[in-house]
Each structure stands twice: as C-alpha cells, then as structure tokens.
Amino acid sequence: MTGTRLRCYIYGLAASKSMIRKLEVSRKLQKRAEQMIPGGVNSLVRAFRSVGMDPPFIVRGQGSRIWDADGNDYVDYVGSWGPLILGHAAPGITEAIGAAAKNGTSFGASIPSEADLAELVISAFPHLEKVRFVSSGTEATMSAIRLARAYTQRKYIVKFEGCYHGHADAMLVQAGSGLATGRIAASSAGVPDGILADTLVVPLDDASALDRVFDEHGATMAAVILEPLPANYGLLPQRSEWLHGVINHCRTAGSLVIFDEVISGFRVGRGGMAEEFGVRPDLVTYGKVIGGGFPVAAYAGRADLMDHVAPAGPVYQAGTLSANPVGMRAGLATVGKMDRLDGWRALNDRAAQFCSRLSTAFTDVRAPIDIVSHASIFWPRVASSQPVRRVDQIHEHQRAWYAKFFHAALRRGVYLPPAAFEVCFLSMAHDDDILRSAVDLLADAAEEAGTP
Ligand SMILES: *Cc1c(COP(=O)(O)O)cnc(C)c1O
Q1: Minimum mean pLDDT range among 169-173, 237-241, 373-377
Q2: Is 126 exposed, middle or buried (0-12, 13-18, 19+ CB in 10 A)?
Q3: How confident is the model at residue 193 (pLDDT cuts 50, 70, 90)?
Q4: Are residues 357 and 325 in the same domain?
Q5: Is 264 in the pocket of ligand 1 (CB under 6 A)?
Q6: Which of 312, 340, 368 represents a domain boundary (last residue)?
Q7: Element (H, E) at 133
Q8: What is the pTM of this model?
Q9: Tens digit of pLDDT for each residue in 388-432?
C-alpha cells in the first residue's frame, strides 16, 4: 500500500465508521413531511425513490461537505444539482448574501445590482446583447420559447429526447416509438395533447430524423431548443458536426436556435457551451450557477429579439421575485469570485485529473464502468463499446448497477445524486485531498457494487 493509498484507506475507514449512525432522525422528519408535502419532498428526485431508501435530511453544508440530521457527514457531489460551483457557504458569498439581506430582500422594484449581473451575463458571451432575469430555469426556457414563437410567428418547437428544459407543459414530452410512427408521449400526467402537438421530439445525434422533421415542418418551425451538453439523462456529450447540422437546419428554415445552458452556463466555463462550440445561438437560457445558490435564472439574446419582451414589446413575462436583491448579489459574488480566481481553468484541470484517476482506479478493481466527463461534470456509466450520445444507447443495466454503487458510496461517506441518470458535480471546494480519497472510496464502492 502506498502512502496515499494507506491514508485514503484510513480516511475511508473513518468515513465508514461515521456512517454507522442510522438515519433515524431523518426518517422521523420524512414521516412528518409526508403528511403535508406530496411524497415528502418539494422536488421529486430528492425523494431517493429510485435508489430505494428514505433521504437523509441535510442540516448544514460547508465547502465540499454536508451534514445530515443524524450527525452523519458526507462529501457532496450533488452541489444542489449544479449551482454550487464554489461549494457550500463559500467565503465571500455568504457575506455578500447577508449584506444584501440586511437592506431588504425584495422590493418588486428596480434595483442597481440588476444591471451589474446583466452586464456580467452579457459579457460572458459576446453575441448576447440583452438579458431578462427570472426565478427558475423552467421559467427561462418557457419564456424563451414564447419569445421565439412570437418573433417567428410560427408554432412548432423541436426538442431532443433526453434533454430536460424544466417542467413547463410544452417541454414535458419525449419521443414515444419515434418519429416513424409520429407517436409522442407526455412525460407527465396533466399535459394536454393540444400542447404536445406543437412540440416535435427527435433523438439526439440522429441527422436523418432531423432532416425529416425539417422537411415536414421547417416552414412552421419557430425554434429548436437543446442542451448543448445534455446533462439531464446522464451526460451525453454531442459531436460538433451534429450540433452544427442542427444550427444549419435552423438557419436555412428561418427557425431560432435556443441553447439551454441552465446547467452548462458558467459551469463548463464563462461562455458556456456556445463559446466552446464557437456558435451563435439566437437565445440562451441560464440558471443554476448564475444564482449562486438562489433562485435566479435568465434568458438572453440579440437586442432586436429581446426587445419583443414586454414592456419593450408584446411578449408578456413577469415575476414577483425576479431579480431580487439577494439573488443578484449571490450571483455577482459567485461569478465574480470565479473570475478573480481564474476558477474555471483551475476547476476543470482538477476535474480532468480526478476523472482520469477515477477511471484508472475503476479499471484496477475491474469495474466495467466508464467515467464520462466534461469540465467539472461527471457521470459513472456502465461501459459500452460504442459512444453513448443518445438515450437508447445507455446500457440497460445502468439503473440497477447505479443503485448498488450509490449505496456503497453513501456508506463510505460519499454523497452522489440519488438517481442513475443524474450527473455529479465538482466544486472549487473539492480540494486535492478530498478528491484523492474520493478516488479510493469510489473504487471500493464500485468493487462492492460488482458487475452490472
Ligand atoms: C435544471 C435545468 C432546468 C430547470 O431549471 P429549474 O431551475 O430547476 O427550473 C432547465 N434546463 C436545464 C438544462 C437544466 O439543467
């Protein structure tokens, strides 16, 4: 055993020892919540149902760690599902939030910091000229779609299978048995057929399906919306040629391109995936990181487009808590700190090193698992000989394997997303020591989980 390996082993023992305590307090809290809140949660994945357990209730977070109500502590790879790029209660951010809150948390009136964050968002990507703040990613994509339809005076929207754009009705659809049969199924009860009819769903990385949909509906296509780095059905990095193909189709047909960068914006880098691909989407949505842990999201684009939004134009959109002072300050402090630290470069370098070490460690324990990663996002995925760019290419045992892996990791004090198709996030607070120990703990967990 090398020194590092030994240190991690001891750390691992300490971590698993700290996990002896049962989740008794959490279970009581869950029972209480279930009496009043559907399923006991206010966002479905928090229920831990897909990994078959009751969730720990979290009472504190600091840096890369979180603590539950039973006193267990974990290294957190969820990061509130993406926003916490600096880690929990990050120095500088909590102070900025406190200072803002002291002066009042909401006025429903214009405040100076809106323009500061607007400037920051626009400067991230030279092609953007105007931005409107809202309170969630759902609102951002919903509003961007309304704007696209108003601007083009067309009705159809294309979305890709497996891409998530929040829970507005028009986006809660997925391909049924594909375009061939034209059957489209809602992902939720309560979504009227009439709304599904105007959303066309095509598989990712399928140029001919896209050709077909544009041949048929190009003239009435308002926009194509996509996650340029699909990260809500596992992590499904796309080929640049395919992405350029999507954009070319839109340009030819006069449809708009909407990049949903709610998860990738200010996460993979300052300019998001638009900058990485070197493309100019007409509209971009942001969320998660730009709120620094507060409910802030945005949609942005060229001025001539954005000026269709009320009161400059006829497209209605409003929000009681939009651009609230605390959220603006949290976002400013977060992005500002990442800028000062050259944070994206540092974080992405560290993440690349971590993922490569993790891959090696998994190979060492003969776990047939690939670590798919992009910048500081990663996803442990049951290995496959083909590249996985589409939902139907994900291994059929992903769900079953992940549940075992998840429990083995949790017992070792590693808190992963409680769902097989959700991605993991690193933050600036995950230092080299934490990551080195995580490699060994996760390799042990993968060994325990066994072959898929
Ligand atoms: C998280 C997410 C959303 C939804 O954002 P909410 O703030 O949860 O409404 C939309 N699009 C993408 C790509 C996301 O990752």
Answers
A1: 169-173
A2: exposed
A3: confident
A4: no
A5: no
A6: 340
A7: strand 130-134
A8: 0.94
A9: 999 999 999 999 999 999 999 999 999 999 999 999 999 999 999
Asked if 328 and 371 sit in the same domain, the reply is no
309 & 195 share domain: yes
* pLDDT at 188 (0 to 100): 84
CATH code for the domain in which residue 15 is found = 3.90.1150.10
Q: Is the CB of 262 under 6 A from ligand 1?
A: yes
CB of 141 closer than 6 A to ligand 1? yes
Same domain for 294 and 215 = yes
- Cα–Cα–Cα angle for 48, 53, 59, rounded to 5 degrees: 65
Residue 113: is its pLDDT beyond 80?
yes
Q: Tell me if 423 is assigned to some domain.
A: yes
* Nearest protein CA to atom 5 of ligand 1, as residue: 137
Same domain, 372 and 334: no
Q: Which atom of ligand 1 lies nearest, measured to the CA of 137?
A: 5
What is the average pLDDT score of the chain? 92
Q: Is the CB of 199 under 6 A from ligand 1?
A: no
| Catalytically annotated residues | 164, 260, 288
Distance 65 CA to ligand 1 centre (A): 24
User: Pick from 377, 391, 384: which is nearest to 163 by CA?
Assistant: 391
Query: Residues in the chain, how many?
Result: 452
- Whichever domain contains 166, its CATH number is 3.40.640.10
Q: Residue 254 carries which DSSP code? A: T
Residue 373: CA count within 13 A, CB half-sphere: 23
Q: Which residues contact 355 (CB under 8 A, 6 or more apart)?
A: 371, 373, 378
Highest mean pLDDT pick, 19-33, 175-189, 423-437: 423-437
The amino acid present at 253, given as its one-letter code, is A
- What's the confidence (pLDDT) of residue 186? 78
Assess whether the C-beta atom of 135 lies below 6 angstroms from ligand 1: no
Q: Is residue 88 part of a domain?
A: no
* Same structural domain, 200 and 302: yes
Residue 369 lies in a domain: yes
First to last CA, the chain: 28
Report CA(79)–ligand 1 centroid distance (Å): 14
The b-or-e profile of 105-114 (16+ CB within 10 A means b, else e) is eeeeeebebb
How many folded domains does the chain comprise?
A: 2
Residue 396 sits in which domain range?
3-81+342-449
